[in-house]
Amino acid sequence: MEWKSLSKEHANQSNHDVKETIVQVGEGNFLRGFVDWMIHQLNVKGLYDGKVVAIQPTPHGKVVPKLNAQDGLYTSVLRGVENGETVNRAELIESISRGIDPYNLWSDVLELARSPHIEFMFSNTTEAGLTYHQETFDENTSPLSFPGKVVAFLYERYKTFDGDSSKGITLIPCELVEGNGDLLKEIVLKLIHDWQLPQAFKEWVETDNLFCNTLVDRIVTGFPRGEEDSFRERLGYEDILLTIGEPYHLFVIDAPEEVAERLPFHKAGLNVKWGDATPYRELKVRLLNGAHTMMFAACYLAGVDTVYQAMTNERLSAFVKDGLFNEILPTVQADDEEKEQFAVSVLERFSNPFLEHQLTDIGMNPLYKFKTRVVPSLLAYVEKNATLPNKLALSLAALLAYTKPVDKEGAFLAGDRNGTRYIIRDNEQTLAFLETVWEEYEAGDATLEQTVHKLLVNTEIWGTDLTQMKGLTEKVTADLEQGIHELV
Fold this sequence. Notes:
Blueprint: E1 20-25, H1 29-33, H2 35-44, E2 51-55, H3 63-69, E3 74-82, E4 85-93, E5 96-100, H4 106-113, E6 120-123, H5 126-129, H6 146-160, E7 170-173, H7 180-194, H8 199-208, E8 210-211, E9 213-217, E10 220-222, H9 228-235, E11 243-245, E12 250-254, H10 257-262, E13 272-274, H11 278-301, H12 307-311, H13 314-328, H14 336-350, H15 359-362, H16 366-373, H17 375-385, H18 390-402, E14 407-409, E15 412-417, E16 420-424, H19 428-442, H20 448-456, H21 459-462, H22 472-482, H23 484-487
Keywords: NAD, Oxidoreductase
Catalytic activity: D-mannitol 1-phosphate + NAD(+) = beta-D-fructose 6-phosphate + NADH + H(+)
Pfam family, one: Mannitol_dh_C
């Protein structure tokens, strides 16, 4: 059967009266499944009246032609566990008016900058996009970098409105970088200096434009490859931009109340918090990311491949829950009810039957992740209880077992799980250190306890000397001797 392509004839809203009020640098899965989905919720509830224009961030993007072919429309499908119930909701998203390829239609971007209706700029250009790059400025050509595009856009706007203070915009970056708004502003000001743009423009950027720090959280997996036929049957049309995500979402925006009133996500029932992102970042890093890092090596070595498989295994899920609720949660400084609710949501997300989150994906750069996500909980638990946390200590032993190399794999190392090879990825210095330490052990030049001591004493890896934690070296050694698969 030949299916009709998604187009404006499928739309529910009348688009001709809705103004373009939001510029969005980025058109990928995450923004479509997060920000654009939220703007749609505002529009359909009558809390906002604006459309998004999506700007392609790199010269090699492939989404804008697809977006324009579908008149800016796409389908969001949220599936997973929500409040203990399995959900699978499809919704046509109508918040995007069009996409622009700035490398071929830079004049369209400049025209947008001259629009009096533009209020906001969102972005998600990955961590690599939120960096400083030296480049030259040509008013007729799109800068290559994301911050460069921001400067050029704001400069055109500044000139158009003669520095009118009311024509500044609110910039809300969604890159996963701490202090992302502050960093974007810093790079923007540096480029203004590089390009020798007027001092008055610099002052307008600093005083009349708002750069917000944010925290974003939702897993968006994108197009459901292999399920195309079932979705065509379900939806009744062909959607080449079908976007799959989990129901859970959290958006923290550090902005004043007047911004929250103009963009009232919270009034639409969305999980959007206005204010300092720091406490929420702590919850996410310690409870969500920390639990992921705590579980990945132990569960993988115990024989499962995904987070969901671990959560459907009675023994492994008990290990995860015990570590999360009894060892990590009590060490996090936050409101008891809020952190309890967050921990419950973490388990729901881990138990999502629609997500195949590979444990080996979590295991990329595992020592760095353990340092930032788990070591703070380990230290805080010992300080609070004067004893070792059993599950966190076991997760450390599992991490050492997981990162014990059996071979080299290009620039990386290879580990082995009962005949199955996996890649051990970390920075060059850490990999060289692991290779040397374990070679000495295999050669009989060091006992297992001596090897564990060498690994745990390395402050460059852990940020602290873990051997100073009473009994930890002995506990990790004993766990390794017994075998991780026997302990979880």
